[in-house]
Amino acid sequence: MKVLIADDDPQLVRALRITLAAHGYEVIAAPDGAAAIALAAKAHPDIVMVDLGMPRLDGVEVIQALRGWSTAPIIVVSGRTGSGDKVDALDAGADDYVTKPFQIDELLARLRALSRRAGAASVPPVITFGDVVVDLSRKTVTRAGARVHLTPTEWRILEFLARHPGALVTRQSLLKDIWGTEQVADTGYLRLYVSQLRKKLEADPGRPAFLLTESGMGYRLLADPA
Asked: From CA 18, how far away is CA 23, in angstroms rounded?
């Protein structure tokens, strides 16, 4: 089980590296937020431990970036005890929160619990299809090297499909993710937005090769192999 520790306290990182290694974990570490995102994209850790007060992107920004492409459990280990900090971290996508100073037995128990949830696969941070590159971490889309402007709703649809490359995504799933309820009636807006995405991303929008409609069910994004 590979654990990424993102913390700018070298003494704490050293102690955690020794302790976790003794319990069978493989530990990699990053001293700041930007390095944590880059290392996560390269190493694909099973669990991420994040401090909130880091240079070059704080912990909440790191969580938000990782949640753009990764389902790996994230545990915040921070000296901030305010409920607002905890709520912000959990709302950003963290799975657990431990306050410094902590008992190592408690941290290990939290890690074991998260380890049981770490089986879900993470999507690579960059998805490609044809001449299109979708960067889920930076939330950017390029086609043939040129930046493609998407509306917020177009991006959310593409992002949802890109997080499930090759899989059938039902209309109900998209409607719930974008509009917040399974009861939202499909009044044609979803088809309209997908049509707009095809015009921007497909070579022949009338005969799409990547953004496919599964009749009566939903949509599928055929991405290049990772």
From this structure: 9
DSSP-derived letter for residue 212 is E
> Length of the chain in residues, anyone?
226
In order of their start, the domains of the chain are 2-115 (3.40.50.2300), 126-221 (1.10.10.10)
94-117: pLDDT as tens digits: 999 999 989 999 999 999 988 876
pLDDT band for 186, please (50, 70, 90 cuts).
low
Q: How far is CA 135 from CA 9, 147, 216, in A?
A: 30, 11, 29
Q: How far, CA to CA in Å, does 125 sit from each of 68, 159, 192?
A: 8, 11, 27
Beta strands in the chain (DSSP E): 2-6, 26-30, 47-50, 74-78, 96-99, 126-129, 132-135, 140-143, 146-147, 168-170, 211-214, 218-221
Closest CA to 126 of 66, 69, 203: 69
Question: Cα–Cα distances in Å, from 208 out to 67, 168, 198, 220?
Answer: 28, 16, 7, 11
Burial of 221 (0-12, 13-18, 19+ CB in 10 A): buried
Per the CB < 8 A criterion, the answer to whether 223 and 128 are in contact is yes
**Overall pTM > 0.85:** no
DSSP reduced 3-state for 86: helix
- Chain centroid to Cα 35, Å, comes to 16
